[in-house]
Amino acid sequence: MARFRTHLALPGSAAALAAGTLVPAQFAGAQSAAAAADYQWVALGDSYTAGVIRAAGDPIDSPRDGCERTDRSYPQVIDHDLYGLFDLKNVSCGAATIDNVTNTPQHPIGHHLPPYIEDPDYPFPAAPPQSDR
Asked: Which domain holds residue 65?
């Protein structure tokens, strides 16, 4: 009897999952550009979120603030793929800790890694806690 329920549960789960994926896609295409301003997304996080590796693309900060966000970081890729459905504010920062996200300002280092790399813009001003934004 348990085997019979398993065989029915798998197709039922797959159908429910497919229906749940299709419904939001219909509404996503129907939204206008004016409605995009209603949804805001703030990306918080550390080096992983900011995309602080050479393979993650080019830096996007202008002027530079030392957080080293890149154009191929996952918040930027999702923002691009969703065609502006959200107003993205990416405040992630390389080398951030949980305290930097919640309570403590962060002193970003940029690419300043002496004695190998001297960043001409170093020192950067402190970035406020990410949750403040």
From this structure: 32-132
For 14-29, what is each residue's pLDDT tens digit?
444 444 443 444 444 5
3-state secondary structure of 90: strand
Task: Please name the residues in contact with 99: beta carbons below 8 A apart, sequence gap of 6 or more.
Answer: none
Among the listed residues 70, 69, 64, the one whose alpha carbon sits nearest the alpha carbon of residue 121? 64
Contact at 8 Å (CB) between 123 and 104?
Answer: no
Global pTM? 0.68
Q: How far is residue 129's CA from residue 61's CA, in Å, rounded to a whole number?
A: 18
Structure tokens at 130: 């990410």
Total tally of structural domains belonging to the chain: 2
9 and 40 share one domain: no
